[in-house]
Specification:
This protein has eight helices and 13 strands. It has 269 residues and is of the alpha+beta class. The structure holds zinc ion (ZN). Zinc ion binds next to strand 11.
Length: 269
């Protein structure tokens, strides 16, 4: 198993996934993500150049920073601070990251919003399923990705274009949504009416998608008036996709006509 050396210890993270079937792996023990470089978007040209020379990278799930690249059969930290960060991450494995993120946001275990929602773990492996409408890599559970591809092709035959606003979102991403809304002055109760807390979002599973269509804003109720929404209502179930939050849903989440989740066929469950 390849080791990443820090001053005092080896940080074992394993090699990249074999066969290129999966493009994203969660390493809960070390709290890093292993991603194919194709599944990572970076802003700076220098970082893009470095990424293009490697096939795999280790990514900080909290900040999205690329910490190490796989080259020449070993992990190479991208910088001195990245090496230090890897050492810190491996030294403090989170026992229950979702719980600690919720506590940091002030969401107590007794909060009634938690009772109405099923817990959802972060996916352990994901597949690159093209890009979203903003050109960012779209990561999905492998089976959901296949079903979504088939559904998009069928929709196109009927003249309907489906665009993806958001696919997989990790625990840290969900916590970030809460932090930004709290900073804007919204209360926890207000946020919990429209966002599932970390550890409860279907987006953690890599099976949920926020959908839209050309010229339609993201995540707006007006999506329900589009031909794309009508098409989904008629055909999505055939591909295993279900609208999770219809009006007056038992989860206490506001109506989300854009949010669709793939569920395995009964015989696979
Ligand atoms: Zn959603």
């Amino acid at each position: 198993m390849p080791a990443l050396r820090s001053n005092s210890r080896s940080i074992l993270v394993g090699g990249p996934p074999r066969g290129g079937v999966c493009h994203w792996l969660s390493q809960p023990r070390y709290r890093v993500h292993v991603c194919s470089t194709a599944a990572v978007s970076v802003r700076s040209t220098a970082a893009r150049r470095a990424l293009s020379a490697a096939q795999w990278c280790l990514r900080d799930p909290e900040t999205g920073t690329v910490l190490a690249l796989w080259s020449g059969g070993d992990w190479q930290p991208t910088s001195r601070p990245a090496r230090a960060r890897l050492a810190r991450l491996s030294a403090s494995p989170a026992r229950d990251l979702a719980e600690s993120l919720r506590r940091a946001l002030g969401i107590q275990p007794s909060n009634p919003a938690l009772r109405a929602l099923p817990r959802t773990d972060e996916a352990r492996s994901l597949r690159l399923a093209g890009g979203d409408r903003y050109g960012r890599p779209l990561l999905l559970d492998a089976r959901a990705a296949r079903a979504f591809k088939r559904m998009c092709a069928a929709a196109r035959l009927d003249g309907v274009v489906l665009e993806v606003v958001s696919g997989f979102r990790g625990l840290h991403h969900q916590a970030g949504i809460f932090r930004r809304k709290l900073a804007r002055g919204q209360t926890l109760d207000e946020i919990l009416r429209v966002n599932a807390p970390p550890g409860y979002s279907e987006h953690h599973s890599g099976r949920a998608l926020d959908l839209s269509c050309p010229d339609e804003p993201p995540a707006e109720e007006s999506f329900e008036t589009t031909a794309a929404f009508a098409w989904l209502g008629e055909h999505a179930a055939r591909f295993g996709f279900v609208m999770s939050y219809p009006r007056n849903n038992p989860h206490g989440i506001a109506y989300e006509p854009w949010h669709w989740c793939w569920h395995p066929p009964r015989q696979l469950r």
